[in-house]
Design goal:
Layout: E1 4-7, H1 17-32, E2 36-41, H2 51-64, E3 73-74, H3 79-91, E4 95-98, H4 102-114, E5 140-143, E6 150-155, E7 159-164, E8 172-174, H5 182-192, E9 197-201, H6 205-218, E10 224-228, E11 231-232, H7 248-253, H8 258-267, H9 280-286, E12 297-298, H10 301-314, H11 317-332, H12 338-351, H13 358-365, H14 376-380, H15 384-398, H16 404-418, H17 422-434, H18 442-461
Parallel strand pairs: 1-2, 2-3, 9-10, 11-12
Antiparallel strand pairs: 4-5, 5-8, 6-7
This protein binds glutamic acid (GLU).
Glutamic acid binds next to loops.
Amino acid sequence: MTVRVRFAPSPTGYLHIGSARTALFNYLFAKHNKGKYLLRIEDTDRERSTPEAIEAIFSSLNWLGLQPDEEPIFQFSRAERHAEVAHELLKKGHAYYCYCSPEELQIMRDEAAAKKLPPRYNGMWRDRDPATAPATIKPVIRFKSPQEGSLTINDHVQGAVTVQNNQLDDMVLLRADGTPTYMLSVVVDDHDMEITHIIRGDDHLNNAFRQYHIYAAMGWDIPEFAHIPLIHGADGAKLSKRHGATSADVYKDMGFLAESMKNYLLRLGWAHGNDEIINEEQAIEWFSLEGIGRSPARFDMAKLHNLNGHYIRHQDDESLFKLTEPFIEKALGYALSTEEKQRILQGMSGLKERAKTLIELGESAVIYVKTLPLDEKATALMTPENISYLNKLLQKLEGCDFSHDALEAILRSSAEEFGIKLGQLASPLRVAITGQTISPSLFEVMEILGKEESLKRIQKII
Ligand code: GLU
């Protein structure tokens, strides 16, 4: 059996971070099993399913490298096929026309509400002769849900879950206007796409029972299920906007790398011993549904930052520069010149050591374009005494070769000559060169900036 899984988002305008994790789990499960990972856009809500909302999903999946192995399926385009199955169920005796009027349905709802029960269709037309149907009502097609016994689903995450069949009422499959309901469409699509494992959020666990009965009535193979717990915020409540960003795209804009995001999302609800840093190759090798935890994972921003710092440090300079370029230009407010790009690329290995996001990295890279405005700490270092040291140093630097080692040597000998510690000279120099009290190796920065630019900066501050 070839494993075939799908990610089936409903377009809402952005890709929720929890959905991104669902996509990732599907992707990893498919790759681990040398199967196929498919994408189905559940675009039946015509109001919300705008081209922009669909594009937002594609764009986030692209960013994360979670592109499907086959062309995406659009659910709305398959409505005729869904209706066909509703009629087949009718023919097989597993569905029936229901001619209830809106008033009758309202009475059923009111009765249930009075008993504090969820709304439930009372099976009024289940066994009734359609010959008695009122001519004025266009019927819906309802599923004849089994009422005896119970159904146990052995979910790969939730374990064995049992629901009494009489808990499920006869749901609508096809509306009076001939459009299919969600519950029918999902089953037909999953069957036609030959899906073997359904991995999705546990908010769909209840649906699995209704869906199971449709598969069974059609005589179709029933897929395996794995319902993963939703992501919660740090306070334990379901992750929502009030906890911070819930859109995958926003994390891209905040300067997280796709690799760190994937590693983070993987660990959020899935474990392989105590491993925290898990690259994609290892993830594919190790992923299993059994590794998914049963309780909701909590989103931890600090952990995501740390992971991102790790992946930034381990990224090669060239590709890191490309990823950071838009952030640098944003920090600067204009496009980089070729010379500036060159300098930043040379400085990348030093810059990337301390950045936790591409925004931070972009901001710190600005030192290779201009000095940053002095903050309080930096200003405090610009004492008359320090300025006089810088003045004396400037003359020495004029005749100096601007290589890392030569610069270090001259700084050391100057400090000695001035009777101060190396740090006492390096700190104001760092401020003069970068505008900051913390930066990558000062000698490296000066070497990359070159003599002309470095001296200009020192003169300016003096
Ligand atoms: N479209 C549903 C959602 O976005 C998922 C349906 C499914 O995975 O079966 O929640």
